[in-house]
Amino acid sequence: MELQWPLIIFTTLVAWSAGLFGTQALMAALGTGERAQVPAWICSAALLAVGGVAVFFHLEHWERIFNGFGHLTSGITQELIAIVVLAAVAVAYLAMLRKSDDGASVPTWLAWLSVALSVVLVAVMAHSYTMAARPAWDSVLWILYVLGNA
């Protein structure tokens, strides 16, 4: 099996984005890291955008990526749904951040929702790699490994 660099870049950057966003949300839920909120959000959004662009280079005909979106059980469809939901919550997170009196806090419910969605996104991406043809990856431990790296 040859290395698919666009998929490696996609998985790495999107997991990094979700991990950073989840960590920033956890810090907000715990009431710490006020100064890091906006820079962390910007970095997380940039990582998500670059990772999202990288996935299109996986296919020789990138327009064919849309063929996979018709099946809800498809890993790429589940990843897309998780990314879109996380991106929408991230935009709401930024809006609440900017709206807050101190410019660096969000409601606790939004912080915990952001943490949960970050974990879900990474788990969905890791689940796409679990396959019987790769016994080392065909385990719940693989999903925990990717979550730990994020």
UniProtKB/TrEMBL annotation:
<dbReference type="GO" id="GO:0016020">
    <property type="term" value="C:membrane"/>
</dbReference>
<feature type="transmembrane region" description="Helical">
    <location>
        <begin position="38"/>
        <end position="59"/>
    </location>
</feature>
<protein>
    <recommendedName>
        <fullName>DMSO reductase</fullName>
    </recommendedName>
</protein>
<keyword id="KW-0812">Transmembrane</keyword>
<feature type="transmembrane region" description="Helical">
    <location>
        <begin position="80"/>
        <end position="97"/>
    </location>
</feature>
<feature type="transmembrane region" description="Helical">
    <location>
        <begin position="109"/>
        <end position="129"/>
    </location>
</feature>
<dbReference type="InterPro" id="IPR007059">
    <property type="entry name" value="DmsC"/>
</dbReference>
<dbReference type="GO" id="GO:0019645">
    <property type="term" value="P:anaerobic electron transport chain"/>
</dbReference>
<keyword id="KW-0472">Membrane</keyword>
<keyword id="KW-1133">Transmembrane helix</keyword>
<dbReference type="Pfam" id="PF04976">
    <property type="entry name" value="DmsC"/>
</dbReference>
